[in-house]
């Protein structure tokens, strides 16, 4: 169930690779907390920290899209928006429902989305970002 960093996820830019690695580690922290049976409050705090970090990361990428006039920006922002909507939905669940879902599909959903996003969407801007001098 854990998510692991793979070299193929690298976009060749340290700032972004570091953010992706940290994003992965936060998701694993949440997973570990769930399997360790941590309290509802602790899970909620971890999730809220992860959600804030996701927003920070999306904003970093989107700032570069705008700066570099990236041609895939609209499509990519839409994918980020899907995750923002999911996160919002989870935040708005009542505590009991969220707790049940933590043991069910929340981590799975986040993991699947992130793995797919790292392997597909984020790879697509690598060339554009490199051409604008990011490394
Ligand atoms: Fe990303
Ligand atoms: Fe992205």
What would a concise description of this structure say?
The chain has 135 residues and is mostly helical. The protein has 7 helices and no strands.
Structure characterization notes:
The chain is an all-alpha fold and 135 residues long. Helix 1 packs antiparallel against helix 2 (40-68), helix 1 packs antiparallel against helix 5 and helix 2 packs antiparallel against helix 3. The chain is 77% helix and 0% strand. The protein contains seven helices and no strands. It has helices at 14-35, 40-68, 73-92, 95-103, 106-119, 121-124, 126-131. The site of one fe (ii) ion (FE2) has 4 residues, from helix 2.
Question: What is the topology?
Answer:
Elements: H1 14-35, H2 40-68, H3 73-92, H4 95-103, H5 106-119, H6 121-124, H7 126-131
Helix pairs in contact: 1-2, 1-5, 2-3
Bound molecules: fe (ii) ion (2 copies).
Main sheet summary: none
Q: Give the count of helical stretches.
A: 7
List low-pLDDT spans. none
Q: Helicity level, as a percent range?
A: over 70%
CATH class group: Mainly Alpha
Q: Using the alpha-carbon principal axes, give the shape.
A: elongated
Mean pLDDT: 94
List its traits.
135 residues; mainly alpha; Four Helix Bundle (Hemerythrin (Met), subunit A); elongated; binds fe (ii) ion
């Amino acid at each position: 169930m854990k998510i692991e960093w793979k070299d193929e996820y690298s976009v060749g830019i340290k700032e972004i690779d570091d953010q992706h690695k940290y994003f992965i580690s936060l998701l694993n922290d949440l997973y570990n907390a769930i399997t360790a049976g941590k309290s509802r409050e602790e899970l909620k705090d971890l999730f809220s920290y992860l959600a804030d970090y996701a927003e920070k990361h999306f904003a970093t990428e989107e700032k570069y899209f705008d700066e570099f006039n990236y041609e895939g920006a609209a499509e990519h922002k839409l994918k980020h928006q899907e995750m923002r909507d999911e996160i919002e939905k989870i935040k708005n669940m009542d505590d009991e429902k969220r707790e049940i879902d933590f043991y069910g599909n929340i981590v799975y959903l986040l993991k699947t989305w992130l793995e797919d996003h790292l392997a597909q969407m984020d790879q697509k801007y690598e060339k554009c970002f490199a051409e604008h001098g990011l490394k």
